[in-house]
């Protein structure tokens, strides 16, 4: 095999179970499957989610992503997390997606299209409590809920907000998240005081599932956590605060994606000879070089050149020289038990994962798994 991304659905299901155990039976899980489930394959992830948790719903960023799920027979609610363009509206209505609504204008436009299609469509009211992106202001939430209530073709089935720093243990960030949660509660209360049912109330992304039980409400929306990464920022909080946060048992998750390839060629090079573009690495002594058929076009960041190591036969070997578009090299040493065609694991075990790769390349695990390209077939393990 040239390169493949093993998707461990068994681990994914275990991760769902871990989240379920943490949040309790009475809360729902919305599985974010946007960007092809962070590169894991939206259809397979959605099906696996429903196998383990019937009440799951899903989150996408584009109407086309919702359509792809419907075509595969997914009937669960699909939330459209991003503000759609007008040219996506017909598809939203046809495929019965649940868009987030941030403003009265867009609510009215949706209502007109739904009227034309003779349909009623579910919507979730989105409130900006401090993310500073989509959503109405806290003060406008009650008025927007009334407006939606008056539109005959819209059904308010949920109310949501999104948290900006819920994954941080920094004290100021913890305070900021608490403020977002209290603003959200206030807005939901005002909607209820108007006699309007806010529907499913939800706010928690992965960070909040780990650190902020007060944000769990009726449903949580953890993405990266279900794909096996905690992605919580460095510890900076004083000890007493940390103790409070760990009232809940440690939550364990395992990386779902494993990127594999193989050593397609082994060759001797002599002391003083260089490897790959730019001649950034030169052998200090005679050695064996293994060529592995994965490159930045497959999603291995070029910035990992000279910094990463890969697992071959249970041992780590350093990446040497520049990672090129389709291949890279490792230093196997002077003598090696590694044989041609041996399997090489690029990332995907708990201590050799996309988070570690992200750290050395200045990004986040989200970007690593999303960037594993179409050229790499996904192979599903059940
Ligand atoms: C992507 C997304 C999530 C999931 O975020 P994670 O950090 O992966 O948990 C939750 N809610 C919304 C609105 C999103 O767009």
Can I get a quick summary?
With 382 residues, the protein is of the alpha/beta class.
Describe it for me?
The chain is α/β, with parallel strands linked by helices. The protein has two domains: 9-245, TIM Barrel; 257-381, Lyase, Ornithine Decarboxylase, Chain A, domain 1 (Beta Barrel), CATH 2.40.37.10. It has twelve helices and 19 strands. The protein has helices at residues 9-23, 34-38, 42-52, 63-71, 89-94, 104-116, 141-150, 171-193, 206-211, 239-245, 354-360, 365-370, and strands spanning 3-8, 28-32, 57-60, 78-80, 98-101, 121-128, 136-137, 154-161, 200-204, 219-220, 257-269, 274-275, 281-282, 287-292, 309-312, 315-320, 328-333, 343-347, 378-381. The strands form three sheets. Strands 2-3-4-5-6-8-9-10 form an eight-stranded parallel barrel, surrounded by five helices. It has a six-stranded antiparallel barrel with strand order 11-14-17-16-15-18. Strands 12-13 form a two-stranded antiparallel ribbon. Helix 1 (9-23) crosses helix 3 (42-52) and helix 7 packs across helix 8. The protein is elongated, with a radius of gyration of 24 Å. The mean pLDDT is 95. The structure holds pyridoxal-5'-phosphate (PLP). Residues 32, 34, 59, 81, 162, 205-206, 221-225 line the site of pyridoxal-5'-phosphate.
